[in-house]
Amino acid sequence: MPDDLASIWVYLAREPLSALTLTLLAWLAALRLHRMARYHPLANPVLIAVLILALGLMAAGIEYRAYFQGAQFVHFLLGPATVALAIPLHRQWHGLRNAMAPAVISILLGGMLAAALGVGIAAALGSPAEIVASLAPRSVTTPVAMGIAERLGGLPSLTAVVVLCSGAVGAVLGPMAMDWAGIRDWRARGLAIGTAAHGIGTARALSVNMQAGVFSGLAMGLNAVLTALWLPFLWSLLRSLG
C-alpha cells in the first residue's frame, strides 16, 4: 500500500471511521423507513437520519464536535455534490435557456422574501443581532449560508441548523402546498422548492420528476450566488442607516 493511502487508513481507523459508519447506518435506516412509509413526504430520509444520529449521540454521550471531527468527510462532499448538479442542468439546457429570465427574477425575489421573513420574525421577537444575522441566509444551501452568516456577524453553527430545518420542512410541506395551490408545472414547482428548500428540497424534487429536479438545482445554485452578493451589501447598508 502506498504511503499516502496508508496514512489515510491510519487516520480513518483512529478517529473518523466510527463516525462515518454511524452516519451511513443512520442513512440506510432512514431510507428503509422511507420505503416502508411508501415514500410519503413526511417520512423525509434526511430528517429521519438526523433524528437517528441525534438520538444516538445523546444516548452514547458523544459531543457533536467530537462526532463532526470524524464525519467531516461527509461535510466535505457537500461541495462536490452541489457541483455535480451541473450534469442534469447541462442535459436540460435547452429548456432552461428558454425560461432563464423569468427563472432568475423568481429566484431573486424568492430569496429576498425568505431572508426578509427570517430577519423579520427574529427581529419581532427581540432576538440579538447575531441571531438575526444567523437567520438571514436560511434559504441558502448550507456551505454558502454558513459563510454568509459568518460575514454578517452571525453564528454559522446556528445557521446550519436553521438551514437544515428549513430544507426539511420545505421538502415535506412544499409539494403539499403547491398541490393545494394547483401548481402543476414541474418547472415552477422545481424553482419554488430549490429556492426555499435548497439541497434537501432538490434531492426530493429529483426523486419525483427530473425536470423539477433540474429547475430546483438551478434555483438552489442561483439563489446561493445571488444571496451571497446582495445580502451582505444590504445588511451593511441597513446597519449603517440604523
Number of E-type strands: 0
Please estimate the helix content.
over 70%
- In terms of quaternary structure, the protein is single chain
Sketch the topology as an H/E string, one letter per element: HHHHHHHHHHHHH
Distance between the termini: 61 Å
Q: What Rg do the Cα atoms give?
A: 19 Å
Mind summarizing the main beta sheet? none
Could you report the average pLDDT, rounded to the nearest whole number?
83
* Fraction of residues in β-strands: under 5%
Q: Count helical runs.
A: 13
Concise summary:
With 242 residues, the chain is mainly alpha-helical. Helices cover 85% and strands 0% of the residues. The chain is built from 13 helices and no strands.
Overview of the structural elements:
85% of the residues lie in helices and 0% in strands. The protein is built from 13 helices and no strands. The protein is globular and about 50 Å long. The mean pLDDT is 83.
